[in-house]
Amino acid sequence: MSQKPRRPRKTAQRIFAIGLAAGVALGASGCGPDITGGGDAATSDRLAAPTEKSPKGEITIWDRSGDLYEVFDDAIEDFNKVYPDITVHHEAVDIDAKLQNTLITGTDVPDGVFLDDAKVAGLADSLWDLSDVLAPYVNDIAPQKVDVNSIGGGIYGVPFDSNPGLLYYNAAALEKAGVDASTIETYDDLLAAARAYKEAVPTAKPIHLEQSAFLGQLQLEMYASQLGTSIADADGALRLDSPEYKEILTFLDTVQTDGLGTRAEYLNATDIAELENGNQVFYPWAIWYSFATQQLLPETLGDWRAMPLPAWKDGGARSGAMGGSSFVIPRGGENSELAWLFYQFLMFDKAGYTAVWGPNDIYPNGLNTSIPSYQPAAQSDAPLFKPVDALGGQDLWAVATTAGAEIPRSVPTPSWWAGSVDYLGNNIQRMLDGDLTPDQVIGNSSDEIQKNLIDRQ
Question: What is the pTM (predicted TM-score) of this model?
Answer without folding.
Answer: 0.89
